[in-house]
Structure formats: structure tokens, C-alpha cells
User: Which sequence fits this backbone?
């Protein structure tokens, strides 16, 4: 009901977020007023994700995007202004009214409370220029034109730009000192380390930096002098357990007054006598849980202190430092029956290599923890971690009877750089996923989990881990819910928003670079989409239409791939959401779908009666999987490893076809002849089809022989000779290898394949003729193109017509091929409708290397035996 409370710096107001007109909006009340007297000051249709007070306590500034696209703008509203009749709230002004941008807030300086410093990427989508924005007029003053690929700027307490962050080519990070128009490196950490500024020291000379540079495994807080590069240790975890968690600074003078660390629970360490006293007083008055100083007045007299714990999503207290009293203001979810909530326990379990994996386990109340249906709930990020406290989904699932495990698998943050870096290149089929699998096995060995009733549900990276779980360990899970989940690591990385560009190298280093051939092959091998035939588990797929991080196409393509296998799939797409659902109606609809799906496949509880508005919303966001279509870019990715369509053996017969060849180029028109002979034969003791082609063209005579698998018609080998050139090639599902000889030189052919390919030329035509062609038939193909030594992905569509060749009419299928990579190529083939089917005409563009033009081939004579039935 209420959350996100803040005190205005002058202490005259308390603000908070509460529903208004169906969405969570900002409200304000005077300090001494009751919460019932508060009034709304925003009326957005989408929940307001974040807001803050201006330094002079005059304005509230908040951010908002459209439909979850994460193109956040910054808005200002005066809480003392009169409300408009239409909205019931004061007018809000967009301080960054530019289409297609994402604004970042760099500084809210105390010395100039009438302005803020922001980054705007209107000039270059990948990099943010720096502006000073006047809060009253909205006027923008350009301070820094970002021509040096800076990922972010750091301002001192006076609002002056002092430092910049930039990613190095190898994925490392450098901190730079800003000297007039120059950027001078002062601190560098490698791609396996991290370093980032926290806040400038009040002396204006040094900056606090969170870093794990060097021999230390755990990150620590240091003071860095940008002028000299010298650093001094401030603090690291006194228990030597986890990374530096965060710093607490005084709102009065910006002095460091405390630090905290997140182990199994949060540990706070005062560095100020007054804070130590405050914590002692508060712990005597507040309930057990995790206390947090949420907001303070400028004079540090009043503080809003939140307390959360596993069975309490949050209670807020007003603490008066002068009186030492803490007054309960509200509980964030007053109607939630905490007495029915389940406790969360920190556990450890061994991975298969002996590494200890930290995790949290939530067990349903009132049920013996033996043989329970179980949900594995991996976190997103993946460079994040789960923590102890209230977790909505853990509580919801435990209430429905499930044990819930939240593993902090390697690659999670907070446990040191060794643990973090142990997840590099370990997605999907590596150690990161093994840690999740080993968590299941641990719960089964302990007798907690029923091995026949284990499901997995996660969002973002957790959604990827969900798909990877059912792909690489298909026998482990009986139900899976991938939520805003990547299915193809190549399209995931290639479709990131442009403003992620300054730090994209971290993805290339930790996951893979699609532009690197070896990395690309590895990414394919770890992408569930390309191994969809292994998935046997029913799926509930969930996505937001406007997701900018993980495009909806990631879910579309896995749905399409699995739809063809007949696997039970349910699909939810919210048209007004992005990377995860924010609106209450969508979250409730998802909850209904989730419990029903899990109950169907794992046997947990499910609420039978659902309020009509929620049922209507669920129906509105439920997608008919039979109607899902792939966009061109998504189709190209899908075609990279999609199963090649099966052929029909009864369409293939031994025989001979003769053709006239017409080559039309800008330099003239040439003619020639072509003969293809298809016959049965043997190769290495096995039966094969042998296709022999003989051509006579103005450029010379050529001979080309393919050996084809009799069941699939995929190429096994090829031997060709054209003039002084000759080719010998061998095909396998994993590679094309051989050599091309020309003019005394031998050029090797060694191409690794993510999936089997078709041969080009005559072998391609034999395969096409054997497809189950009919009007409206569509599919995707992969062809190894000899001239470029690349695999071309093609989209195929079929129509039916009658053509004239010579004086005869033929009923044919016209097969159109369109390259999915956007490059020239493709063409059309006209194939007889009878049996056996024969290519009667083809028309295809010539490559640019030959000067362009086209080649038309028409049959003059065909002699085939009856097709094999």
C-alpha cells in the first residue's frame, strides 16, 4: 500500500508512493499530518519507479518511461501547486522532453539547488552528453560533449565534474581525472576486477572508491587521491566473508558515518559515535529484522527507518534523535497476514567440484519438510545476488505448498571476485548451471524435495537458467516458467540498447562476443533455442512487449521452436510492460497463471476462484501460441540452427535432366548447357545417392559430383573441377572440410558448423524437390555457399502456378528463397507437381564478384524412373 517514503531535506514534508487511480504514484503530507491527509502529486498510468526531493525541498523529481521501454525521462512537480481538475494532481514538467532518449542523473548539488546535472543521449544513442538543467525553466546548458566514449561522470559535493569512467578495450575499467578538457587516467582495474567511485570526501580532494583491485579477493572501501593516484584503505569486511556492501554518509556534512556488509544477513558497522548510539536505541525499540536508514533531514534530527524481515515486507518508523523515540508510521502491506508467512533460512550446499554454494531456503508452514514439490528460483543479473528478507514469490510459492530454493550460484556478486569470475563463460552448460542442478540434488538427498515434482522459475538471467535447466538437464524438471528470458545468447547481446555500449565489453568477456567465430559457436552451444529438440518439460513463457533488455523475440523464437514439437506451452505477453511486470493487474494475472500451471504439473495448491478483473486481464495477456510469428531478424537467428525440414523419399528417383543455361550480365548474354544425372551408388560401404552435373559454358566445361545421404539428402562429400580449378570437400553435421586447388595453389576449406547444412547447386535442387511442397508452405534452410565459404540462411515460401517451357505447359510449385541476412542472393525455383518432382526452371542473381546479373536455367528434357514409394 505504501512504500518509498522520504523526508524532505528541510523536514517539512514526508513523501511516499501509494496507489492513485490504479497505479502507484507519489503522495505528500506535511510532517505532522496523518497519512490520511496526504494528497497525490503524480497521476501516472504506470507505477512511478523512483523519485527524490530537490535540495531546497521545493520540488519532487521523478522518473518514468513508456510501457516499460526504459527510456526514462526526468519530471518535476511542485507539491504545493494547485491540482488540475482533470488529473487531481499538480502539473508535472518533463525536464528531458526528447524522443528516444534515456536520461541519467549525475548530480544533485547542494550549492546550486535550483538545478541538477543529467546525461542525455540524444546526439549519440550510445553515449551521454552532460547538461545542467534548470529546475524552474527546464533550460538545458551543455557542459560536456561526450566525444571520448565515457560511460559515466562523477561529481564532487559542490557539483563540479571531477572524474569519468571508461571501459577499456579488454573489458577493464579506468577512472579518469577531469582536468579542463583533458581526461587523465588515475586508476585502472582489469576485466576480472571492479572499481567504481562511491562519493567524494568532504575535503573535496579525495574520493571513496569500492575496489577489489590487486591481490585482495573481497572488495574494500578506499580513499583515492585523483591528483596522485594514491589510495588508502578505509575498511574491508571485519569478518572476511563478503565484499564491501555500502557506505552511510551524514546528510548534514557528508562525513562517512557507517558501513554495511551483506552476508547471510546485513551487518552494520558505525564509524560515528552518534550512529552507534542511534543503532543501540533503535534495536531496543524495533522488531527483529534488517533496519535501514531510509531518509534523513538535513540537520540529521529525524530519520525514516525501515525494518524488513522474511515475514515482514516492511514497516516504517520515524526516529527522533533528540528524544530517542521511534514511532511506527505504517506497515507497507497492512492486510498481509504475516502469521501465515514462511521463514527463510540461509543454507550452504556443496557443488560437484566441492565449492560451497550459499543459498536461501523457504519451506511451507505447517507441512513436514519431506518429499515436497519444489521450485528452484534463480535470480537475475546474473551479476547480482539473493538476500535474506521478504521475497514475494518465495512467500507466494511456499503458501501454495512448495519448498523454494534461491541459490547464489557462482557468478553471483558479493562473495568476492574469485566466486564472481568463476562464472565467466560458464552459462548454460557450465558451472553456473551445475550449481543450480546440484542444489536440486542436495534437496533430494536431504529428503526435502520430491525428485518427481521439481520445477524452475526465474526472470532475466534466472529465466535463461530456467530454459538452460530444461535443455541441458531435461530429466530434472517437470515444469518451467521462463520470465523475460533470453533463449539465444547471440541475439540477446546483439540487441542490447545502444547506451549499454560503453560497458558491452564486460558481456563479451564474461559471456562471449558474437563477432568472434569461436565465441559465436560457443554462444550457440549454450543457447537453449538451438537445442530446443532436447526440451521435454512443459513451459509457461512470460514476457513484456516493450522489453529493451531481453527482446520479446527471445520468447517468440523458443515458443515457435517448441510449438512444432507438440510440447505443452503457455504464453503470456503484457503489451504495457518491459523487463518484468510492474502494474498490479499484470502481476496478479501472472500469479494466477503461475499457480495454475505449477499445480497442473507439480501438484501444489491453486486458488480456485479468481476475481473477474484479474481473470479478464489474464485472458487479455494470454497468447495463442499457434499464432506466434517470427520477425525477419528473429527468423534469421532461428534459422541458424533450426532443424532442417525432413524430406520425402518418394519424391526422389534416379534419372537425367538436361537444361539450357542463360547467363545475363551487364556485359552481355551467354548461353550454355547443363546435364544432371542422379543415380544410386555406394560410398565407404554405405548406400548413397550420387548426383553428377556436367556443364558447358563459354567459360569452359565443368564437372561436379555430390554424394548425398539417401534418407536426409544432406551432402556427404563433393568433388568438382572447372577449368584449372578443382574442389574436394567432406561434410559432417559439425564442419565442412576440404581444399580448393587453383593455379598450383591449394586453399584449405575448414568451416565449423553450429548445425548441419545443405549443399548448393544441384544438391540443393534435389533437396528442394523432395520437400513436402504445397501452396503456403514455409520454412527456413541453411546452405553452404562455396564462393564465400559461409553458411547462408534462407526463408522459403511456396505458391502454385502454371508455366510455359517451349510449347508445353507445366503445373509447378514456385519456391521463392529470400536471404535472411539481408544480403543479395536467393532466387526462385519452379518444380513439377508430379512424382518424381523435378526442377524445371530456376532463376537466381549472380554474385557481385561476377559483375551482377542473373542466371536462368530451363529444362529441355527429363528422363526419370518411377519414384520410390
Assistant:
Amino acid at each position: 500500500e505504501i512504500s518509498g517514503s522520504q523526508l524532505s531535506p528541510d523536514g517539512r514534508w514526508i513523501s511516499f508512493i501509494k496507489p492513485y487511480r490504479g497505479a502507484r504514484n507519489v503522495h505528500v503530507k506535511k510532517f505532522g499530518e496523518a497519512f490520511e491527509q496526504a494528497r497525490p502529486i503524480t497521476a501516472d498510468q504506470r507505477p512511478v519507479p523512483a523519485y527524490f526531493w530537490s535540495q531546497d525541498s521545493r520540488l519532487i523529481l521523478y522518473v518514468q518511461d513508456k510501457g516499460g521501454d526504459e527510456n526514462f525521462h526526468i519530471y518535476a512537480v511542485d507539491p504545493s501547486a494547485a491540482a488540475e481538475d482533470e488529473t487531481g494532481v499538480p502539473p508535472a514538467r518533463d525536464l528531458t522532453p526528447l524522443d528516444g532518449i534515456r536520461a541519467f542523473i549525475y548530480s544533485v548539488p547542494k550549492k546550486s539547488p535550483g538545478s541538477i546535472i543529467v546525461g542525455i543521449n540524444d546526439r549519440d544513442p550510445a553515449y551521454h552528453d552532460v547538461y545542467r538543467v534548470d529546475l524552474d525553466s527546464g533550460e538545458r546548458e551543455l557542459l560536456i560533449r561526450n566525444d571520448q566514449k565515457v560511460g559515466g561522470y562523477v561529481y564532487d559535493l559542490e557539483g563540479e565534474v571531477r572524474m569519468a569512467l571508461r571501459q577499456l578495450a579488454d573489458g577493464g575499467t579506468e577512472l579518469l581525472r577531469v582536468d579542463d578538457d583533458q581526461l587523465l587516467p588515475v586508476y585502472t582495474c582489469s576485466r576480472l576486477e571492479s572499481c567504481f567511485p562511491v562519493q567524494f570526501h568532504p575535503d573535496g580532494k579525495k574520493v571513496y572508491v569500492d575496489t577489489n583491485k590487486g591481490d585482495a579477493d573481497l572488495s574494500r572501501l578506499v580513499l583515492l587521491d585523483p591528483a596522485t593516484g594514491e589510495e588508502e584503505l578505509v575498511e574491508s569486511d571485519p569478518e572476511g566473508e563478503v565484499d564491501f556492501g555500502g557506505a552511510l554518509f551524514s546528510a548534514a556534512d557528508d562525513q562517512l558515518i557507517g558501513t554495511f556488509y551483506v552476508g547471510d544477513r546485513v551487518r552494520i558497522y558505525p564509524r560515528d559515535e552518534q550512529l552507534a548510539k542511534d543503532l543501540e536505541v533503535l534495536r531496543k525499540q524495533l522488531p527483529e529484522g534488517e533496519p535501514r536508514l531510509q531518509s534523513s533531514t538535513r540537520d540529521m534530527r529525524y530519520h525514516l527507518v525501515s525494518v524488513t524481515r522474511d515475514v515482514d515486507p516492511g514497516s516504517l518508523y520515524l526516529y527522533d534523535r533528540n528524544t530517542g523515540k521511534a514511532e511506527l508510521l505504517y506497515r507497507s502491506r497492512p492486510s498481509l497476514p504475516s502469521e501465515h508467512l514462511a521463514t527463510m533460512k540461509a543454507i550452504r550446499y556443496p557443488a560437484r567440484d566441492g565449492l560451497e554454494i550459499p543459498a536461501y531456503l523457504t519451506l511451507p508452514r505447517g507441512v513436514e519438510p519431506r518429499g515436497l514439490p519444489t521450485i528452484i528460483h534463480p535470480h537475475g543479473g546474473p551479476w547480482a545476488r539473493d538476500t535474506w528478507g521478504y521475497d514475494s514469490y518465495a512467500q507466494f510459492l511456499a503458501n501454495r505448498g512448495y519448498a523454494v530454493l534461491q541459490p547464489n550460484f557462482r557468478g553471483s556478486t558479493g562473495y568476492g571476485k574469485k566466486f564472481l569470475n568463476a562464472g565467466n563463460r560458464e552459462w548454460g552448460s557450465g558451472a553456473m548451471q551445475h550449481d543450480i542442478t546440484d542444489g536440486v540434488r542436495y534437496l533430494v538427498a536431504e529428503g526435502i524435495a520430491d525428485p518427481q515434482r521439481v520445477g524452475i522459475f526465474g526472470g532475466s538471467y534466472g529465466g535463461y537458467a530456467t530454459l538452460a535447466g530444461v535443455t541441458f538437464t531435461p530429466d530434472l524438471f517437470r515444469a518451467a516458467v521462463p520470465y523475460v528470458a533470453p533463449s539465444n545468447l547471440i541475439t540477446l547481446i546483439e540487441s542490447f540498447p545502444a547506451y549499454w555500449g560503453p560497458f558491452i565489453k564486460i558481456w563479451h568477456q564474461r559471456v562471449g562476443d558474437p563477432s568472434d567465430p569461436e565465441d559465436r559457436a560457443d554462444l550457440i552451444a549454450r543457447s537453449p533455442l538451438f537445442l530446443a529438440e532436447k526440451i521435454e518439460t512443459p513451459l509457461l513463457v512470460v514476457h513484456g512487449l516493450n522489453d529493451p533488455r531481453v527482446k520479446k523475440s527471445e520468447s517468440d523464437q523458443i515458443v515457435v521452436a517448441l510449438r512444432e514439437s507438440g510440447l505443452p506451452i503457455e504464453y503470456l505477453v503484457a503489451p504495457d510492460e518491459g523487463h518484468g511486470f510492474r502494474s498490479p493487474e499484470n502481476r496478479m494475472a501472472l500469479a494466477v497463471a503461475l499457480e495454475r500451471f505449477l499445480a497442473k504439473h507439480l501438484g501444489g495448491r491453486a486458488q480456485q476462484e479468481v476475481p473477474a478483473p484479474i481473470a479478464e486481464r489474464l485472458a487479455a495477456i494470454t497468447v495463442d501460441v499457434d499464432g506466434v510469428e517470427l520477425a525477419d531478424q528473429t527468423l534469421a537467428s532461428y534459422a541458424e540452427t533450426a532443424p532442417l525440414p525432413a524430406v520425402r523419399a518418394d519424391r526422389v528417383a534416379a534419372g537425367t535432366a538436361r537444361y539450357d543455361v542463360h547467363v545475363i550480365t551487364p556485359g552481355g548474354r551467354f548461353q550454355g548447357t547443363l546435364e544432371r544425372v542422379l543415380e544410386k551408388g555406394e560410398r565407404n560401404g554405405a548406400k548413397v545417392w550420387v548426383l553428377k552435373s556436367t556443364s558447358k559454358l563459354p567459360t569452359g566445361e565443368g564437372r561436379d559430383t555430390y554424394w548425398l545421404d539417401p534418407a536426409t539428402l544432406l551432402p556427404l562429400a563433393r568433388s568438382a573441377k572447372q577449368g584449372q580449378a578443382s574442389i574436394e570437400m567432406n561434410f559432417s553435421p559439425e564442419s565442412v572440410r576440404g581444399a580448393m586447388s587453383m593455379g598450383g595453389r591449394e586453399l584449405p576449406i575448414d568451416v565449423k558448423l553450429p548445425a548441419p547444412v545443405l549443399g548448393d547447386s544441384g544438391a540443393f535442387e534435389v533437396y528442394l524437390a523432395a520437400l513436402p511442397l504445397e501452396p503456403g508452405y514455409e520454412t527456413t534452410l541453411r546452405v553452404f555457399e562455396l564462393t564465400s565459404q559461409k553458411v547462408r540462411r534462407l526463408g522459403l515460401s511456396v505458391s502454385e502456378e502454371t508455366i510455359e517451357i517451349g510449347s508445353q505447359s507445366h503445373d509447378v510449385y514456385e519456391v521463392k528463397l529470400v536471404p535472411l541476412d539481408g544480403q543479395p542472393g536467393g532466387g526462385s525455383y519452379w518444380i513439377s507437381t508430379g512424382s518424381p518432382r523435378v526442377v524445371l526452371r530456376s532463376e537466381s542473381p549472380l554474385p557481385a564478384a561476377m559483375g551482377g546479373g542473373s542466371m536462368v536455367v530451363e529444362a529441355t528434357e527429363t528422363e526419370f524412373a518411377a519414384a520410390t514409394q
Notes: The CA atoms of residues 342 and 395 lie 6 Å apart. The chain has 13 helices and 49 strands.
